[in-house]
Design a protein that fits this description.
- The longest helix is centred in the C-terminal third of the chain and has 21 residues.
- The protein is globular.
- By secondary structure, the protein is α/β, with parallel strands linked by helices.
- Strands 6, 7, 8, 9, 10, 11, 12 and 13 form an eight-stranded mixed β-sheet that branches.
- The termini are far apart.
- Helix 2 crosses helix 14 and helix 6 packs across helix 7.
Length: 401
């Protein structure tokens, strides 16, 4: 198995490595960026986030790169396995010497905290939305993109309180990103602060095949509101098996990864009433609102075939690429448009420019991005499945701090 992974990792270098514009020694030498995604593991249903980053860099390279510098990117598969992600991170640092790395999971992002902030001093943008990764003082090189999991649970509970809920339950898979946010909210007794009773926190295996017993237990407890910390596969099983045992699906509210068309498509009418958050719009909304990112993605797709480029996952990756490039562009503006030979110096400059973004419009219809808090923005819309489609039932709600 280990040999197979090494072969696949080597192949991925050839499949997803950017080409070089300028010869070595040229003033316009490439800007190197690493990307670690889950292309084959338990959260690979979200793999478009990594492909969206890659494709934005391809799009920009076709336009001449960043101030004439090609983006020399490398996308590798971390498979949501912490040792593989950590190994890939170290390989990128050693071989590619990137100025920034996109990292995937909560577990790997946490495992790399010391290496990132004390040793390599390289800005990383995590797909994880864990609150444990957001601390500008002690983790100056860690960044995420939007509200944390804990932020989302809090706003979900605030919403539940406003709807008259009194009895609360949590459920989610056994991966780190699913468990640790629930534990943090339980530890701070957020339900108690809102005057609600917390009943239980249930954990099941990643990519569950049957949650009938869990749904029966929830039905017996009879909560008014059930928070689901899982992505697509877990939500599909939740909806399917809740419907099987006669548990009201409108009681469920899932973290934003579950806002996916696969859920109503796989479960049909059983999904009616299921709720989640929307943080990033999909391509159809970008185009309908005539937003810049929609025009760019449409232009790119006119030249390149992509199967799932319309999803908000893909748009998220694209917009993260846009935001990071803005910081690199600003850093190059202070170096005379030269990539410094001292890579740690350049990483620090890019980190500072990313943290220094104020009211930046990434072209995707999001709240304006200010990165002093290393999150960029802290807002989300509530969505609900109605007539087989995800429908907004709120505007962007700012999450209190």
């Amino acid at each position: 198995m280990k040999k197979l992974w090494i072969i696949l990792s080597v192949l991925s270098c050839f499949l997803f490595h950017g080409t070089t514009f300028a010869a070595e020694g040229d003033d316009l030498k490439p800007v190197s960026i690493g990307i670690i995604g889950d292309l084959s593991g338990p959260t690979s249903a979200l793999a478009e986030m990594a492909y969206g980053i890659r494709d934005y860099f391809l799009y920009l390279n076709d336009k001449g790169g960043i101030k004439g510098h090609e983006i020399d990117f490398l996308l590798v598969d971390g498979a949501e396995v912490i040792p593989i992600e950590v190994s890939n991170y170290k390989r990128l640092i050693t071989r590619q010497k990137p100025v920034l790395i996109f990292v995937w999971s909560t577990g790997a992002s946490k495992a790399l905290r010391r290496q990132v902030n004390k040793v390599d001093k390289i800005p990383i943008m995590s797909e994880s939305m864990s609150e444990e990764l957001v601390d500008p003082k002690s983790l100056p090189y860690n960044f995420i993109f939007g509200p944390t999991y804990e932020d989302q649970i809090r706003i979900g509970l605030d919403y539940a309180k406003s709807q008259g809920a009194k009895r609360i339950a949590f459920i989610g898979c056994n991966l780190d990103w699913c468990q640790s946010p629930r534990k943090r909210i339980i530890a701070e007794e957020y339900c108690k602060k809102l005057g609600m009773e917390f009943l239980t926190d249930m954990t099941y295996p990643a990519r569950p095949t049957d949650l009938t017993s869990e749904m029966l237990r929830l039905k017996k407890l009879n909560p008014d509101f059930i928070w689901v910390n899982d992505s697509v596969e877990g939500s599909i099983a939740t909806v399917r098996d809740a419907n099987k045992v006669g548990l009201d699906v409108s009681k469920f509210f899932a973290v934003h990864w579950s806002k996916h068309d696969a859920i109503p498509k796989a479960t049909g009418k059983a999904a009616e009433g299921y709720r989640s958050f929307m943080i990033i719009p999909d391509l159809a909304e970008l185009k309908a609102r005539k937003l810049k990112a929609g025009d760019e993605i449409s232009e790119f797709l006119g030249k390149h075939r992509r199967k799932k480029a319309g999803t908000w996952y893909y748009v998220r990756g694209w917009l993260k690429g846009v935001t990071v490039v803005e910081a690199i562009n600003n850093a190059l503006g202070k170096t005379g448009n030269k990539v410094p030979n001292d890579i740690k110096k350049f990483r620090k400059m890019v980190r500072d420019e990313l943290e220094g973004l104020v009211n930046f419009d990434c072209g995707g219809g999001l709240p304006l991005i200010t990165y002093a808090n290393h999150q960029g923005f802290i807002a989300a819309k509530i969505m609900q499945v109605k007539n087989g489609k995800w429908t907004p039932i709120s505007e962007y709600l700012q999450i209190r701090k």
